[in-house]
Amino acid sequence: MINKLHYISQGENTKAHIENIQKACQHGAELVQLRLKNISEKKVLKAAEEARDITSHYQTRLIINDHYKIAKKVSADGVHLGKTDTCPKIARKELKSWQIIGGTANTLEDCKTLIEKQVNYIGLGPFRFTSTKDNLSPILGNEGYQSIIEELKTETPVIAIGGITIEDVTELLTTGIHGIAISGEITKDFTKIKAFHTLLNTGSVMEQRYSFKK
User: Fold this and answer.
1) Separation CA 161–CA 150 (nearest Å)
2) Can you tell me which residues bind 2-[(2R,5Z)-2-carboxy-4-methylthiazol-5(2H)-ylidene]ethyl phosphate (predicted)?
3) Which is nearest to 177 in space by CA: 111, 101, 88, 90?
4) Which of 6, 74, 90, 98 lies at a CB distance of 3.0 to 4.6 Å from 52, suitable for a disulfide?
């Protein structure tokens, strides 16, 4: 099962990312993604090891952005691959069968390509403008999501991402998305995690009882 709320780590430096992951876990996050850009692989590995220790303690799922080999090394629950990252099929050959793979999409064609490559979920966005990502793809909005999901007709979970606030969730859910990925809105106020869970109705017994495989 793919969790409906994904917290994407944010911070001015690596230490801040780790501290924010800790706070997210303390406030009930069920899945966090370690997203570090423009730093060495060695530093990403160290941060991933720290994030794995934290998330294991709280029984929170950990996804590593971009680095599938690091995801494998630290026994993360999966990897999220951007449009210019490693092909999901290549990553799948390296990862354990239980480790999940997510992929970034902006268009209907992107989604179809990811489904062909058998990703476990699609991160589709951006919903609106966000400063957390460089070279932003065209904005989708509610109509964009609805159009793509209606055409796609897939069982692969679609996770909306990009500048989403708590006020957006109810209407976004009417488009057929499976869940949402949040960065800034949660980093500003980690107490909102509970409210997001309530809106998404994610507090299921199955997700709470998720056990890690090593």
Assistant:
1) 18
2) 130-132, 163
3) 111
4) 74
Confidence of residue 213 (pLDDT cuts 50, 70, 90): very low
Structure tokens at 73: 């090394």
SS3 assignment, position 208: helix
The annotated binding site for Mg(2+) is made up of 66, 85
**pTM of the entire structure?**
0.91
Give per-residue pLDDT as tens, 62-105. Answer: 999 999 999 999 999 999 999 999 999 999 999 999 999 999 99
- For residue 188 the two structure tokens come to 């500003």
E strands, 9-163, are 31-34, 61-65, 78-81, 100-105, 121-124, 158-161
Q: How confident is residue 22, by pLDDT bands cut at 50, 70 and 90?
A: very high
CATH topology of domain 5-200: TIM Barrel (3.20.20)
Closest Cα to residue 75, out of 172, 214, 185, 179? Answer: 214
Phi, psi of 182 (to 5 degrees): -125, 140
The tokens describing 146, both together, are 């609805």
Q: Where are the domains of the chain?
A: 5-200
Cis amide leading into 126 (omega within 30) = yes
